[in-house]
Amino acid sequence: MANSESAKMNKAEYWDERYQSADDPPPREWHLGYDQLEDYLKAHVYPHWPADASIMHPGAGSSHLPMEMHNRGGYTNITCAEFSPAVIAQMQPLDPGLKWLQSDVRDMPGVASGSYDVVFDKACFEAFCAWGPKHLLKEIPDVIVSDSRRYSQEMYRVLKPGGWFIIISVFEARYVHHLVKCEGTNWEDVHAPKALSADGWMQTRAFCLRKPGAQET
Question: Cα–Cα–Cα angle for 81, 93, 25, nearest 5°?
Fold first, then answer.
């Protein structure tokens, strides 16, 4: 993807146009789907969080994942946060059991602090970080640093004490941690990054961070 396009991915207008102009109907998967994530979920998430845990999927877009976690994972309290009205209109009718929230996940004044047990990010973080160098920390553009850290701070705020922030990403651990473990947060690692795909320059990993607090895992 050219930088001229990927640099627009932090704006709602870009995603509205993209979803409205897509030829294939939703849902459309970005990144790994539920089938590829199921082993990780069964081993590292489902045993720790009951069916009524409050889960947010930030930047849910047209992903199948929230629907599959609802219908196959049994979770009954899932909110999809998305700033594109176009994709909300497309996705909301597909599963009435999901809640949808139109919001910029970098700033969610309508969401009370400590609202969620789990934030599950699949590709939202990467939309903020999709352009610019990914291998040299000193070359990360300022807009990536600002957007990703605002996002991390807001997810920290909306999580309950003990809540989990799960990020599915192709970026290296040092890059993810450099951007997410920032001022205004005190993330703890629940486990080391878990490989979800074959080794290589596009290897996908699951990062699981915890907001300190009372929840026992």
Answer: 90
- Evaluated on CA atoms 176, 44, 154, 71, the torsion sign reads positive
The pLDDT of residue 9? 57
Q: With CA atoms as reference, report the closest residue to 87 among 8, 166, 14.
A: 14
Residue 215 lies in a domain: no
Q: Are 176 and 169 in contact (CB under 8 A)?
A: yes
Q: What pLDDT does residue 217 have?
A: 47
Q: What is the block-wise mean pLDDT of the chain (217 residues), using blocks of 10 residues?
A: 49 56 61 92 97 97 94 97 89 95 94 98 84 60 88 98 96 91 97 87 90 76
Q: Based on the structure, what is the number of domains in the chain?
A: 1
Largest CA distance in the chain: 47
Whole domain around residue 29: which residue ranges? 3-210
pLDDT value, residue 137: 64
Q: Are 183 and 164 in contact (CB under 8 A)?
A: no
Q: Is residue 12 part of a domain?
A: yes
∠ CA 65-166-215, rounded to 5°? 115
Find the DSSP H helices in 10-83: 12-21, 34-44, 65-71
Confidence (pLDDT) at 168: 95
Could you tell me if residue 216 is inside a domain?
Answer: no
For residue 48, give every residue at least 6 positions away whose Cβ sits within 8 Å of its Cβ, in sequence order, or none.
164, 217
Tell me which residue of 204, 216, 202, 143 sits closest to 168, measured CA to CA. 204
